[in-house]
Records
---
Amino acid sequence: MVSKIIKNFVTIIFFVVGFILISESMASAGDKCHRNADNKIVLDDTSGTPVSHDSGSTYDQDYCNEEPLNYKIKIFEAMVCSSDPYIAGTGDTGADPNFTSCTNFFTNTSGKDVIIQPNVKADLFDGSNVALPIGTFPYSVIILSNELNIKHHETFIDTGGNDADIRGYKASGFSTGKTCYSHGKTTTYTGYASDTVHGKTIISTSAGTGSSLGLICTDSFDPDNPPSDYDYTTEIIDSIDDTCDSSNDCDTTFRPYIGYQNSSAINGRYAGVLVQDDGRTVGTNRNNSTRIAYIMNFNNSIEITEDISSFEMQFDTNSSVSIDWDAAASVTNAIKLGADPFQVKYIVTN
């Protein structure tokens, strides 16, 4: 089964001089929310499955994927490789990747925070020129934090054309309104709800408990003057393989790797390994797994010559936020925003 973590991605574009980053769209619309003419998400707001993925014909889903307004990632390294860096694990035990044939073209030991916004360019290299290695490279690796951050808001309308009445986070009771926004909470991709991961408090989301919800809802949200608690929510990718075991039990089972998967979007295959702070040692548990090694094997090797004119790495943010709901007492509750990562596509022009 293909991991949803690696399946949905954002888009970064690096040019040889300056290496500019921009979001683009490569994802399918299969899990997109149904919207009305005013771009509001339409919900059956009395149902536990309030979302339609088929243009409003059927409301039978408890999530939908959208393009986040602000998607923040932390990149530590990017490299090209002449030999396969992926080493397969066994069962729930991973193996260290092998980067001996790899050459870095980006390194930041502290990690570079990059905010990806729709149609907005950002500079990963702060305006400096970058030297690319000359050669033929069938593989590439990106090392990034496995904590993905999203700041996002949405406005909802019900199937009758009225403002939806959604319940959200409040320390006591519930917030309520037609617009729901992120507010700085931390969740895990698998739903693992230990007290802390990476020293961060993990909320255990539960419909019917306002203090556990991951979004705040209101009727008075102003995007030009947002409330002070409008902030990034964090999702920790705490198991790279969303099947984990025979019963898909990722809550109690940890697995730090997923083997190569075919992908037409990158014209090749990808694999993923959760690694520790050194970026080289495979993770052995949720707390020491802090980074993702995203490994690509291209059908056609990257050819970098002295005549290169552009080098692009593309991430797609089109469907990189999952908006999740559940119902309690026949009322829709805004559970959380889930962060779905990226597929990466390279385009080289010589």
---
Amino acid sequence: MNSLELVCRYSLPPNKLGYCGPQDCSALLKECIDSPEDADKEKVKTALEQFHALMPYLNMIANKNGLSAFDSEVLEAYWIGNSLLEQVEKRDLQRLVLKDFLGKGFLPKKIAEEKAAAVKEGMTPHHSFHVLHINFLNRELSSIVKNLSECLVQWGEVKDVTIKGLKVKGIELFKNGRDLNMREKIKTVENPYKLDAGERDLVSVHWKQAVQILSKDEFTEMKKYTLKNLEAVNK
């Protein structure tokens, strides 16, 4: 899978729901997924640059590691997790919230300042940081636990392949007092990208859709950085 196909796979589910990115780019993203070698890469990048919750993180990870925003390692860091995340400091995340989310009008001043002040040591610019700490820039999408859980990129072990999709032993968020916690859940998720997944394969899930088959290393990294941000949020 090339880097643009990867970011399109993760970006398409919330875009089709109207939660993230330009409303008229779903067909373009899907074309990149279906025929990545034939896709107009510049058009795809231009569309992705309008995803206001995505690009600030990609730019920051890239700048801190001397790379470009659409380099495969950068996209992997944000969506799955890798060591590039470790180069980003607490003050970088605080600056991102104030400059990119408050400065461009995506968060109200009071909320942005509270979010920036509440950034903790150990947090990383993994997608889970945005879900668990920032929540949503789309003000029509409420930050209830069910929505946060669906937006979080999850992992799951395939238990069965059915007509409806993949039956997986996955995860979900739930509220335990003031804390967000995670627990296992058996569920069926859609398989829109027709992953050739079988029993015991590990897959990632975004907005109830299987996105990619994960290697053991990718699974380890995704779990590591998600739990790291979850632990920091609950401190």
---
Amino acid sequence: MTSPATPSGPAPSLVARTVALDLAEAVSLVSLLPADHPVAWLRRGDGLVGWGEAAVLRSSGPTRFSDADKWWRETIARADVDDSVGEPGTGPVCFGSFAFGDLPGDSVLVLPEVVVGRRGDRAWLTTISTTGSPAPTPTVAPAEAPLPPSAVSFADGALNGEQWMSVVADAVARISAGDLEKVVLARDLVVRADERIDVRWPVHRLTESYPMCWTFHVDGMFGATPEMLVRRERGLVTSRVLAGTIRRTGDDERDLALAATLARSSKDLEEHEYAVRSVADALEPHCSSMNVPEAPFVLHLPNVMHLATDVNGVVHDAGTVSSLQLAEALHPSAAVGGTPTVVATELIDEIEGMARGRYAGPVGWMDANGDGEWGIALRSAEVVGDTVRLFAGCGIVADSDPEAELAEAQAKFVPVRDALAGS
């Protein structure tokens, strides 16, 4: 069931049933995904996978978040829910992927027909029916494995490396002139295969190679993001802020030295401070108390290292403000837009030279209580048929070097590039 492009139609009536599931520890959630509209949100073996489409909402423009949240509340209000597990992520769960900008701003919220979840030693199965009766209980077993893309070729997207470095230099000049403090600029690569690409292949590989990240797929948008925009769970809220990056060399001793350099880098610490400040300012109106660490830690990933800060708080308005509304309040943070936000996003529109689509927008899930996890669609790509667009962005400040930023963007392409390889 799919709603109109504008959310004017009634929310569907649903029957949702959640039961405990005896899922062997050796069975990975990602292995359960069939080719029928798969969705995924996975980290370190836990998370949610789903398939089929019980209902879909596509929203756009500046009201894309509020339209989606309203539709979800109406959908849940009309649902017959029997949830014998009672964990965050049980009962009806929607998966969403939202556009970075207001225009065109095409976004999607999907309610799967089947969701399988795991948290620690607990697993569950949720079925959704739109017929008025409970759906038959499906067999939960590994699906037929996806095949790798064949005859893959890579090409520059909207701008080649030289053109993009010129854009970065332009941004640095404007920052030096005092127009703004920071802007995040992105570029894309285009990958083509000789036949339709099964998105489950790169999703499988990302879960294996980047277990510390949140691997996701919603409606063609997939990736392994290291950045949690917001998690809301039973009144507690968390946001992981990443800003400031250095590429790993593969030599452990050398990488430890580079991590120390990153932790002392005035350029990266300045960039990171902007991002943390923007998140704390956006969460503060919703929190009765907050913890904002004074200094970041260095997050080590297989390909890069980031300055990272976990901002935590206690939400005082959980009864009226959902995790998706918190994600809207936080988006775009300085980590993906810049500072000041309005000036930076206007500059992105003016000089970046490509359509971001859902890149760097919120992606994640939400349950019937409004709890959920929303990451930022980074280290990501969008697949349409036999074509994939890969995205990577860099935070530009006054002393940014265009060549260094290009090298950083290349490093950020690595996760998805490697995931599309055939072996």
---
Amino acid sequence: MPTLSAKDFLLWEKKQLSKGGEKPSFSLLLESVGGVTQCTLNKAKINDQNNIYINNLNLIESLWEDHLSKLTPIQYLCGYTYWRDLKIKVSRKVLIPRPETELIIDIVQKKIVKNPQKLFFAELGTGSGAVAIALALANPLWVGIATDIDKDAIAIATSNFNSFCNKSNLSFCCGDWWNPLNNFKGKLDIVISNPPYIPKDVYEALPKGVKNFEPKISLFGGEDGLDHIREIVKKAPFYLKEHGWLIIENHFDQGEVVKKLFIKNRFKFVEVLKDFAGIGRFTIGRYK
């Protein structure tokens, strides 16, 4: 394993960052490929006389060049990302989970379920499994089912869950939206979905680092971005218990339209909740 003095390492890091890119992305690459943790970096900055042990120095430089020249998301190059307190495996078969989506967990825990109890929940379009896994780990009494139309996404989500624990309170099913849940009509307490919601004109203008690498099936929501949201909301009453909750993540300017869809389909206590940036990102409602 190559060894650099902390001083030399910091100079090398500075050189790589001078080429462009963001420091958090380079730090993720250092940890995943080089085995250099943030804790090690912090110690190096305090005492540059320490030695730094780093793997795959040339590979790190090559992957960083790939990230900068081709705009390949660093998470795909590393094979994982951090989301809440989880280390989530990702590939180009799944959307990279976003920080704003983390709020879904807090909405469920603090606004909808205020007392611990046994609940049956589902996530539609699970992708990497981040949301469903976070809920299942935080609530071991709950039972959950996560669905996705892509079998590769189901494999990644299953692998992610198995890497965190040996619990059996979460299962994964391949199929289009509600179809895998036909045996559970009227039985679900909570349903969560972060469906594809990006309108056609917005999708066409997405940054290359998103449009060229992340799966279109996870992003594109039709002409107005609402194709999948309409289907989910319209069919939700068949699957939710009375007083069951539906939570949808939507595009920044879709909140009021989605709220009307909820009300039209007999949901009550409908709200549009804001994300970290103060944008109406989540629509929630209780069925009847």
